[in-house]
Amino acid sequence: MPSVFTPSTQTELARFVAGNAAGSRQRLRPIGGRTTLSANVANSEEICEIRLGDLKSLVDYPARDMTVTVEAGMTVAELQSILQKEKQRLPVDFAQATRATIGGAVAMNASGPRRAGHGSLRDYLIGVSAVDAQGRLFHGGGRVVKNVAGYDLCKLAIGSRGTLAILTQFTFKLRPLPEAEGLIWTTFDTFAEIENVLERLLVSAARPVAVEVLTPPAAAVIANAAHASLPIDRPVLVIGVEGTESTVMWQIEQLRREMVPFGVQDLQTCTSEAASPVWSALTEFQTPADDPITFQANLRPSRAMEFLTLAHAAGVLAQCHAANGLIVGHIPAEPGGGTPPLGTLTKLREFARTAGGNLTVRHADENLSSRIDWLGDPEPSATLMRQLKKKLDPHELLNPTWFDGAGK
Questions:
Q1: pLDDT tens digits, residue range 192-201?
Q2: Final residue before a domain boundary, out of 176, 198, 219
Q3: Which of 9, 196, 239, 397 would suit a FRET pair with 223, their CA atoms being 20 to 30 Å apart?
Protein backbone atom coordinates (compact mmCIF):
# COMPACT_ATOMS: atom_id res chain seq x y z
CA MET A 1 0.00 0.00 0.00
CA PRO A 2 1.25 3.50 -0.79
CA SER A 3 1.52 6.19 1.91
CA VAL A 4 -0.35 8.63 -0.37
CA PHE A 5 -3.14 8.04 -2.89
CA THR A 6 -4.61 10.78 -5.12
CA PRO A 7 -7.74 9.62 -6.97
CA SER A 8 -8.84 11.40 -10.13
CA THR A 9 -12.43 10.09 -10.03
CA GLN A 10 -14.88 8.87 -7.42
CA THR A 11 -14.90 5.44 -9.07
CA GLU A 12 -11.11 5.19 -8.81
CA LEU A 13 -11.33 6.10 -5.13
CA ALA A 14 -14.02 3.48 -4.48
CA ARG A 15 -11.92 0.81 -6.20
CA PHE A 16 -8.86 1.70 -4.13
CA VAL A 17 -10.75 1.67 -0.81
CA ALA A 18 -12.43 -1.65 -1.69
CA GLY A 19 -9.04 -3.21 -2.44
CA ASN A 20 -7.69 -1.94 0.87
CA ALA A 21 -10.65 -3.34 2.82
CA ALA A 22 -10.24 -6.74 1.16
CA GLY A 23 -6.48 -6.76 1.54
CA SER A 24 -4.05 -5.04 3.90
CA ARG A 25 -6.68 -2.92 5.71
CA GLN A 26 -4.34 0.00 6.09
CA ARG A 27 -5.76 2.99 7.92
CA LEU A 28 -6.85 5.83 5.65
CA ARG A 29 -7.04 9.57 6.23
CA PRO A 30 -8.94 11.87 3.81
CA ILE A 31 -7.03 15.09 3.15
CA GLY A 32 -8.29 18.35 1.67
CA GLY A 33 -6.48 21.66 1.94
CA ARG A 34 -4.73 20.72 5.20
CA THR A 35 -6.03 23.86 6.92
CA THR A 36 -7.27 22.00 10.01
CA LEU A 37 -4.76 19.17 10.21
CA SER A 38 -3.37 19.19 13.74
CA ALA A 39 -0.61 17.53 15.71
CA ASN A 40 -3.03 14.94 17.11
CA VAL A 41 -3.43 13.50 13.62
CA ALA A 42 0.23 13.62 12.64
CA ASN A 43 1.37 11.43 9.76
CA SER A 44 2.66 7.96 10.41
CA GLU A 45 3.81 5.05 8.28
CA GLU A 46 0.65 3.14 9.20
CA ILE A 47 -1.72 5.69 7.68
CA CYS A 48 -2.32 6.30 3.99
CA GLU A 49 -3.35 9.82 3.04
CA ILE A 50 -6.23 10.03 0.56
CA ARG A 51 -5.64 13.39 -1.10
CA LEU A 52 -8.83 14.63 -2.73
CA GLY A 53 -7.45 17.71 -4.47
CA ASP A 54 -8.01 16.28 -7.96
CA LEU A 55 -11.73 15.74 -7.31
CA LYS A 56 -12.60 19.38 -7.95
CA SER A 57 -15.16 19.46 -10.75
CA LEU A 58 -18.23 21.66 -10.94
CA VAL A 59 -20.79 18.89 -11.49
CA ASP A 60 -23.98 20.93 -11.89
CA TYR A 61 -25.00 24.55 -11.40
CA PRO A 62 -28.60 25.37 -12.34
CA ALA A 63 -28.40 28.99 -11.17
CA ARG A 64 -32.15 29.56 -11.52
CA ASP A 65 -32.78 26.77 -9.01
CA MET A 66 -30.18 28.31 -6.66
CA THR A 67 -28.40 24.99 -6.10
CA VAL A 68 -24.89 23.84 -6.97
CA THR A 69 -23.19 20.43 -7.02
CA VAL A 70 -19.40 20.22 -6.68
CA GLU A 71 -16.76 17.64 -5.88
CA ALA A 72 -15.00 17.63 -2.53
CA GLY A 73 -11.59 18.87 -3.69
CA MET A 74 -12.77 22.23 -5.03
CA THR A 75 -11.57 25.09 -2.85
CA VAL A 76 -14.01 27.39 -1.13
CA ALA A 77 -12.59 30.39 -3.01
CA GLU A 78 -13.14 28.67 -6.37
CA LEU A 79 -16.74 27.87 -5.50
CA GLN A 80 -17.51 31.39 -4.26
CA SER A 81 -15.95 32.86 -7.41
CA ILE A 82 -18.25 30.73 -9.59
CA LEU A 83 -21.31 31.71 -7.56
CA GLN A 84 -20.49 35.44 -7.53
CA LYS A 85 -20.83 35.56 -11.32
CA GLU A 86 -24.52 34.78 -10.80
CA LYS A 87 -24.75 37.11 -7.76
CA GLN A 88 -25.18 34.11 -5.47
CA ARG A 89 -23.25 32.66 -2.54
CA LEU A 90 -22.99 29.95 0.05
CA PRO A 91 -23.41 32.30 3.06
CA VAL A 92 -20.97 30.59 5.43
CA ASP A 93 -17.61 32.13 6.34
CA PHE A 94 -14.55 29.94 5.78
CA ALA A 95 -11.03 30.72 6.94
CA GLN A 96 -8.17 30.27 4.44
CA ALA A 97 -10.66 30.03 1.58
CA THR A 98 -7.97 29.75 -1.10
CA ARG A 99 -6.69 26.54 0.54
CA ALA A 100 -9.71 25.11 2.34
CA THR A 101 -11.65 22.56 0.30
CA ILE A 102 -15.39 22.10 0.29
CA GLY A 103 -14.94 18.53 1.52
CA GLY A 104 -12.79 19.66 4.43
CA ALA A 105 -15.25 22.40 5.34
CA VAL A 106 -18.13 19.91 5.49
CA ALA A 107 -16.08 17.30 7.35
CA MET A 108 -15.05 19.84 10.00
CA ASN A 109 -18.40 21.70 10.06
CA ALA A 110 -16.56 24.98 9.44
CA SER A 111 -18.35 28.27 10.06
CA GLY A 112 -17.64 31.88 10.93
CA PRO A 113 -19.18 35.19 12.05
CA ARG A 114 -22.25 35.07 9.80
CA ARG A 115 -23.44 31.92 11.54
CA ALA A 116 -25.66 34.10 13.76
CA GLY A 117 -27.84 35.18 10.85
CA HIS A 118 -27.34 32.53 8.20
CA GLY A 119 -26.69 29.33 10.13
CA SER A 120 -24.05 26.74 9.30
CA LEU A 121 -23.45 24.20 6.54
CA ARG A 122 -26.15 21.99 8.08
CA ASP A 123 -28.66 24.52 6.75
CA TYR A 124 -27.43 24.37 3.14
CA LEU A 125 -26.21 20.85 2.40
CA ILE A 126 -29.00 18.96 0.61
CA GLY A 127 -27.07 16.17 -1.15
CA VAL A 128 -23.94 14.16 -0.49
CA SER A 129 -21.94 11.36 -2.12
CA ALA A 130 -19.29 9.37 -0.29
CA VAL A 131 -17.26 6.16 -0.26
CA ASP A 132 -17.58 3.99 2.83
CA ALA A 133 -14.80 1.95 4.44
CA GLN A 134 -15.64 -1.08 2.28
CA GLY A 135 -15.30 0.93 -0.94
CA ARG A 136 -19.01 1.31 -1.66
CA LEU A 137 -20.04 4.60 -3.28
CA PHE A 138 -23.33 5.83 -1.83
CA HIS A 139 -25.54 8.91 -2.08
CA GLY A 140 -27.85 10.78 0.26
CA GLY A 141 -30.29 13.61 -0.37
CA GLY A 142 -30.46 14.99 -3.90
CA ARG A 143 -30.15 18.01 -6.17
CA VAL A 144 -33.48 19.59 -5.29
CA VAL A 145 -34.29 21.59 -2.17
CA LYS A 146 -37.47 19.69 -1.27
CA ASN A 147 -36.05 16.24 -0.66
CA VAL A 148 -37.26 14.42 2.45
CA ALA A 149 -36.99 10.75 1.51
CA GLY A 150 -34.98 8.40 3.73
CA TYR A 151 -32.44 8.94 6.48
CA ASP A 152 -30.72 12.34 6.41
CA LEU A 153 -27.17 11.29 5.53
CA CYS A 154 -26.26 14.94 4.90
CA LYS A 155 -26.54 15.76 8.59
CA LEU A 156 -24.50 12.66 9.41
CA ALA A 157 -21.72 13.76 7.05
CA ILE A 158 -21.34 17.25 8.49
CA GLY A 159 -18.69 17.32 11.20
CA SER A 160 -17.83 13.63 10.72
CA ARG A 161 -14.13 14.50 10.20
CA GLY A 162 -13.52 11.69 7.78
CA THR A 163 -14.30 9.01 10.37
CA LEU A 164 -17.45 7.54 8.81
CA ALA A 165 -16.84 7.79 5.06
CA ILE A 166 -14.71 9.63 2.52
CA LEU A 167 -16.88 12.53 1.33
CA THR A 168 -16.63 13.08 -2.41
CA GLN A 169 -19.45 15.29 -3.70
CA PHE A 170 -21.97 17.80 -2.34
CA THR A 171 -25.10 19.67 -3.38
CA PHE A 172 -25.87 22.98 -1.65
CA LYS A 173 -28.76 25.35 -1.77
CA LEU A 174 -27.68 28.98 -2.22
CA ARG A 175 -28.67 32.54 -1.35
CA PRO A 176 -28.41 35.83 -3.22
CA LEU A 177 -25.44 38.12 -2.61
CA PRO A 178 -26.41 41.12 -0.47
CA GLU A 179 -26.27 44.57 -2.00
CA ALA A 180 -24.41 46.02 0.99
CA GLU A 181 -22.95 45.13 4.38
CA GLY A 182 -21.91 47.01 7.47
CA LEU A 183 -20.29 46.54 10.87
CA ILE A 184 -20.63 48.29 14.20
CA TRP A 185 -17.50 48.07 16.41
CA THR A 186 -18.15 49.01 20.05
CA THR A 187 -16.21 48.81 23.32
CA PHE A 188 -17.42 48.33 26.88
CA ASP A 189 -15.75 48.35 30.28
CA THR A 190 -16.79 44.77 31.09
CA PHE A 191 -18.16 41.66 29.43
CA ALA A 192 -21.14 41.89 31.80
CA GLU A 193 -22.17 45.14 30.08
CA ILE A 194 -21.95 43.38 26.73
CA GLU A 195 -24.27 40.70 28.14
CA ASN A 196 -26.91 43.41 28.68
CA VAL A 197 -26.64 44.47 25.04
CA LEU A 198 -26.92 40.86 23.86
CA GLU A 199 -30.18 40.50 25.79
CA ARG A 200 -31.46 43.69 24.17
CA LEU A 201 -30.64 42.34 20.72
CA LEU A 202 -33.14 39.53 21.26
CA VAL A 203 -35.98 42.04 20.87
CA SER A 204 -34.28 44.43 18.46
CA ALA A 205 -36.01 45.53 15.28
CA ALA A 206 -32.68 45.06 13.50
CA ARG A 207 -31.61 41.63 12.27
CA PRO A 208 -27.83 41.19 12.67
CA VAL A 209 -26.12 38.41 10.74
CA ALA A 210 -23.03 38.48 13.00
CA VAL A 211 -22.64 39.12 16.74
CA GLU A 212 -19.01 38.76 17.81
CA VAL A 213 -17.42 39.46 21.20
CA LEU A 214 -13.64 39.85 21.45
CA THR A 215 -11.13 40.05 24.25
CA PRO A 216 -8.88 43.13 23.84
CA PRO A 217 -5.85 41.11 22.62
CA ALA A 218 -8.03 39.41 20.00
CA ALA A 219 -9.45 42.77 18.96
CA ALA A 220 -5.92 44.08 18.49
CA VAL A 221 -5.01 41.17 16.20
CA ILE A 222 -8.18 41.61 14.14
CA ALA A 223 -7.84 45.39 13.81
CA ASN A 224 -4.20 45.01 12.79
CA ALA A 225 -5.04 42.34 10.20
CA ALA A 226 -7.74 44.60 8.74
CA HIS A 227 -5.38 47.63 8.74
CA ALA A 228 -8.16 49.49 10.53
CA SER A 229 -7.93 52.14 13.24
CA LEU A 230 -10.40 50.72 15.76
CA PRO A 231 -10.61 50.92 19.58
CA ILE A 232 -9.07 47.83 21.18
CA ASP A 233 -8.38 48.76 24.82
CA ARG A 234 -11.59 47.23 26.25
CA PRO A 235 -13.87 44.25 25.56
CA VAL A 236 -15.28 44.60 22.05
CA LEU A 237 -18.70 43.83 20.59
CA VAL A 238 -18.95 43.66 16.79
CA ILE A 239 -22.35 43.51 15.09
CA GLY A 240 -22.69 42.83 11.37
CA VAL A 241 -25.69 43.56 9.14
CA GLU A 242 -26.50 42.94 5.46
CA GLY A 243 -29.12 43.90 2.90
CA THR A 244 -29.82 46.80 0.60
CA GLU A 245 -27.95 50.06 1.08
CA SER A 246 -30.92 51.67 2.81
CA THR A 247 -31.59 48.62 4.99
CA VAL A 248 -27.98 48.47 6.18
CA MET A 249 -27.94 52.17 7.10
CA TRP A 250 -31.28 51.86 8.90
CA GLN A 251 -30.12 48.86 10.92
CA ILE A 252 -26.87 50.55 11.90
CA GLU A 253 -28.73 53.61 13.14
CA GLN A 254 -31.29 51.46 14.96
CA LEU A 255 -28.59 49.43 16.70
CA ARG A 256 -26.70 52.58 17.64
CA ARG A 257 -29.76 53.96 19.43
CA GLU A 258 -30.45 50.67 21.17
CA MET A 259 -26.88 50.18 22.46
CA VAL A 260 -25.98 53.66 23.69
CA PRO A 261 -27.86 53.35 27.04
CA PHE A 262 -25.88 50.22 27.98
CA GLY A 263 -22.47 51.71 28.72
CA VAL A 264 -20.89 52.00 25.27
CA GLN A 265 -17.44 53.58 25.61
CA ASP A 266 -16.64 53.93 21.92
CA LEU A 267 -18.61 53.19 18.76
CA GLN A 268 -17.42 53.12 15.17
CA THR A 269 -19.10 51.93 12.00
CA CYS A 270 -17.64 50.35 8.87
CA THR A 271 -19.68 50.17 5.67
CA SER A 272 -19.13 49.23 2.04
CA GLU A 273 -15.47 48.64 1.16
CA ALA A 274 -14.26 49.57 4.65
CA ALA A 275 -16.20 46.65 6.14
CA SER A 276 -14.72 43.91 3.92
CA PRO A 277 -11.23 43.67 5.52
CA VAL A 278 -12.78 43.60 9.00
CA TRP A 279 -15.15 40.78 7.98
CA SER A 280 -12.15 38.91 6.58
CA ALA A 281 -10.09 39.43 9.73
CA LEU A 282 -12.95 38.21 11.93
CA THR A 283 -13.20 35.08 9.78
CA GLU A 284 -9.46 34.38 9.68
CA PHE A 285 -8.95 34.79 13.44
CA GLN A 286 -9.75 31.12 14.06
CA THR A 287 -6.68 30.06 12.02
CA PRO A 288 -3.87 28.85 14.34
CA ALA A 289 -0.90 31.21 14.29
CA ASP A 290 2.17 31.41 16.51
CA ASP A 291 0.44 30.69 19.80
CA PRO A 292 1.14 27.28 21.36
CA ILE A 293 -2.52 26.24 21.78
CA THR A 294 -5.69 26.97 19.81
CA PHE A 295 -8.98 25.70 21.25
CA GLN A 296 -12.69 25.75 20.60
CA ALA A 297 -15.22 25.92 23.43
CA ASN A 298 -18.93 25.27 23.05
CA LEU A 299 -21.11 26.81 25.74
CA ARG A 300 -24.63 27.97 26.35
CA PRO A 301 -24.72 31.56 25.12
CA SER A 302 -25.81 32.64 28.61
CA ARG A 303 -22.46 31.51 30.05
CA ALA A 304 -20.20 32.75 27.26
CA MET A 305 -19.44 36.16 28.80
CA GLU A 306 -18.32 34.51 32.04
CA PHE A 307 -15.95 32.34 30.03
CA LEU A 308 -14.56 35.38 28.19
CA THR A 309 -14.01 37.18 31.49
CA LEU A 310 -11.93 34.24 32.72
CA ALA A 311 -10.09 33.97 29.40
CA HIS A 312 -9.28 37.69 29.36
CA ALA A 313 -7.88 37.52 32.90
CA ALA A 314 -5.54 34.75 31.67
CA GLY A 315 -4.36 36.80 28.68
CA VAL A 316 -6.13 34.59 26.11
CA LEU A 317 -6.97 35.92 22.66
CA ALA A 318 -10.62 34.87 22.29
CA GLN A 319 -13.45 35.43 19.83
CA CYS A 320 -17.02 34.44 20.69
CA HIS A 321 -19.86 33.88 18.25
CA ALA A 322 -22.22 35.23 20.89
CA ALA A 323 -25.47 34.05 19.30
CA ASN A 324 -24.54 30.38 19.69
CA GLY A 325 -21.84 30.28 22.39
CA LEU A 326 -19.01 29.01 20.18
CA ILE A 327 -15.62 30.44 21.25
CA VAL A 328 -12.26 30.15 19.50
CA GLY A 329 -9.20 31.10 21.50
CA HIS A 330 -5.42 31.22 21.23
CA ILE A 331 -3.40 30.70 24.40
CA PRO A 332 -0.07 32.56 24.16
CA ALA A 333 3.23 31.24 25.44
CA GLU A 334 3.31 33.85 28.21
CA PRO A 335 -0.29 34.69 29.16
CA GLY A 336 -0.96 37.94 30.99
CA GLY A 337 -2.22 36.02 34.01
CA GLY A 338 1.17 34.38 34.49
CA THR A 339 -0.17 30.80 34.14
CA PRO A 340 1.59 28.47 31.66
CA PRO A 341 -0.45 27.46 28.55
CA LEU A 342 -1.38 24.01 29.88
CA GLY A 343 -2.53 25.48 33.19
CA THR A 344 -4.66 28.04 31.39
CA LEU A 345 -6.14 25.30 29.21
CA THR A 346 -7.07 23.29 32.31
CA LYS A 347 -8.80 26.26 33.96
CA LEU A 348 -10.82 27.09 30.87
CA ARG A 349 -11.80 23.46 30.31
CA GLU A 350 -12.93 23.11 33.93
CA PHE A 351 -15.17 26.15 33.55
CA ALA A 352 -16.60 24.88 30.27
CA ARG A 353 -17.35 21.52 31.88
CA THR A 354 -19.09 23.00 34.93
CA ALA A 355 -21.07 25.34 32.65
CA GLY A 356 -22.49 22.36 30.74
CA GLY A 357 -20.26 22.78 27.69
CA ASN A 358 -17.00 21.39 26.38
CA LEU A 359 -13.60 22.48 25.14
CA THR A 360 -11.52 20.75 22.48
CA VAL A 361 -8.02 21.57 21.29
CA ARG A 362 -7.72 22.39 17.58
CA HIS A 363 -3.96 22.92 17.38
CA ALA A 364 -0.95 22.62 19.67
CA ASP A 365 2.80 22.93 19.35
CA GLU A 366 4.63 19.64 18.92
CA ASN A 367 6.32 19.96 22.32
CA LEU A 368 2.87 20.14 23.97
CA SER A 369 0.85 17.72 21.85
CA SER A 370 1.79 14.57 23.76
CA ARG A 371 0.74 16.17 27.06
CA ILE A 372 -2.59 17.53 25.91
CA ASP A 373 -6.00 15.94 26.30
CA TRP A 374 -7.31 16.95 22.89
CA LEU A 375 -10.97 16.06 23.33
CA GLY A 376 -11.48 16.48 27.07
CA ASP A 377 -14.12 14.49 28.89
CA PRO A 378 -16.28 12.26 26.66
CA GLU A 379 -19.52 13.81 25.49
CA PRO A 380 -22.78 12.18 26.64
CA SER A 381 -23.21 10.99 23.05
CA ALA A 382 -19.67 9.53 22.80
CA THR A 383 -20.78 5.93 23.30
CA LEU A 384 -23.45 6.28 20.61
CA MET A 385 -20.87 7.87 18.29
CA ARG A 386 -18.49 4.95 18.72
CA GLN A 387 -21.31 2.47 18.08
CA LEU A 388 -22.15 4.32 14.86
CA LYS A 389 -18.47 4.31 13.88
CA LYS A 390 -18.35 0.56 14.49
CA LYS A 391 -21.38 -0.04 12.28
CA LEU A 392 -20.14 2.04 9.36
CA ASP A 393 -16.44 1.28 9.73
CA PRO A 394 -16.13 -2.04 11.62
CA HIS A 395 -12.36 -2.30 11.14
CA GLU A 396 -11.77 1.37 12.08
CA LEU A 397 -9.93 2.15 8.88
CA LEU A 398 -11.06 5.76 8.38
CA ASN A 399 -9.27 8.51 10.31
CA PRO A 400 -9.30 6.52 13.58
CA THR A 401 -7.13 8.97 15.56
CA TRP A 402 -10.05 11.38 15.94
CA PHE A 403 -11.68 8.81 18.23
CA ASP A 404 -8.62 8.17 20.38
CA GLY A 405 -9.68 8.71 23.98
CA ALA A 406 -13.32 9.40 23.10
CA GLY A 407 -16.06 7.41 24.77
CA LYS A 408 -13.69 5.06 26.59
A1: 999 999 999 9
A2: 176
A3: 196
